[in-house]
Amino acid sequence: MKERNDPVQEVIGSYRQLLLIAFAFSGGMSILALTTCIYMLEVYDRVLASRSNATLVMLTIIAVGAIVVFGILDSLRRRLLVRTGLRIGDAMAARVQRAMIATNSQAGTVAIRSAIRDVDTIRNFFGSPALGALMDAPFLLFYMVILFLLHPLYVLVVAMGSAALIATAYLSHKLTTPPLTQSINQQIRVQAFGDGGLNNADVLEGMGMSSNFVGRWYSQWLIGVRYGATAAERDARLSAVSKAIRQLLQIALMAAGAYLVLDAQASGGVMIGATIIGSRALMPIEMIISSWKSVIAIRLAWIRLSDLLNDAPQRDEGMDLPAPAGVLRCTNIYYVAARTRKTIIANVSFELRAGEALGIIGPSASGKSTLARLIVGAWPATSGVVRLDGANIYSWPRESLGQYIGYLPQDVELFAGTVRENIARMSEGSPEAVVAAAKLAFAHEMILMLPKGYETEIGDAGHWLSGGQQQRIGIARALYGDPRLVVLDEPNSNLDAAGEKALTDTLAALKKRSTTTIVIAHRPSILLGMDKILVLNPNGGVASFGPTADIMREYTRGANAESGNVVPLQTAATQATPTSRGRE
Fold it and tell me: Which residues are in the ABC transmembrane type-1 domain (predicted)?
């Protein structure tokens, strides 16, 4: 089995040189950390014995200078690690956001929606004390060598203390990791559940569901709190044990030093210095134990990000191609849902010449919206291919293809920003092109009636606009830039009679511009101006395909209605309403 790449490790590895510099600073700090113990040793053994003020002054000057350098190195290391974290976050953020969009477009999960928070977790870890402690930990061996030079008994005492602290750290990992992992994962689920409630607050209030929703949210939140409390209690006990071990180690070092002094194998200065060195040696281990929660958090974030970046749909994009004329050919398209393994689209084939208009109808859950996503290249077909002017539309570079395609999804999904920015597809956009698209959608007059016209802020997901206003602005966005292929998924679902009349005029204008147009609709009246109609059966296959007049004549007579595979236009139109339709 081929080993999976670790994209997070690759990003962090690209800043290896900065991390090595920070590690070198840690080495210098570890040496300078001996300043206090060496100063005490010299004062006890040299200054007090010689009673020399000059020696005391010189030692003090040297010690102060060393501590100042220590402080400078500590500041530089922390600043370097913080900036390294910022660079790592900068290198990952856009890539992770793109992977989130690609993955959620097809089959989003709760964990994937938290990926940007995972990037922040990794970025913040580089500026945390935990990483500094990890960098300091290897220099335990350096302190052990110094202690050995003072006397091997000190090494034995520190080795026993180190073994006890490492055992405590291992026990902490075993006892706190499971509940802490469950707590973090539950928090992600609770956050996603709460966000869903906020996004549908009008439904909760309008249907009296708020209390039920809050009760369910609270029960899930309480589960996460209990897991977190269990982990915190265990971590608190083990942190207390590690602190007690370190204090006992200081007593043991002092006792060993006193024994050596009484046995004339060491001086009082050596006793004090060894005690300080031994305590300093074990400080990083204790820091790691106390920061174990953040170590587990970054480990989980690392795993989630690696899985996301490895599993996100990848496009084999080729070179930019000339502007298409709009010839669309779908050949034996199948689409199987990845998680359920259910076939949604089955062996759909059709062809449109440039400038032709196609209407797609069918019962609810027959795969109409899925087919629309396949046609615009948002999703890859499981088998078969969708070609625009002969090129695989899924492999066409998205940035260059976007200017040639217009798409209105079933859920309009406007974004926080102004009307102008939404029509211009979140770009600055030229005013002329924005107004032209709005006029083509017959939305220009409506937009001018808004408080600030095209500069009106529409709020998150366009919640300051009515459903009809959102839909007409969504249609204008689909028409921005004079696209050659336009796919509209139920563009009249929220429109009144005037809006539907405007939509009919828009479709007629697209016909005059020779724009290939595909319209999915439940109300067949909007499809009367189409050149062809494609009827999907409940299994996602093609029930009928042909000129509009022939299909209308066949289905208005109710022909083949008893076969079970074909749904008359009237039935297709009444099986779903704007308030009852689900995703297809």
Answer: 20-297
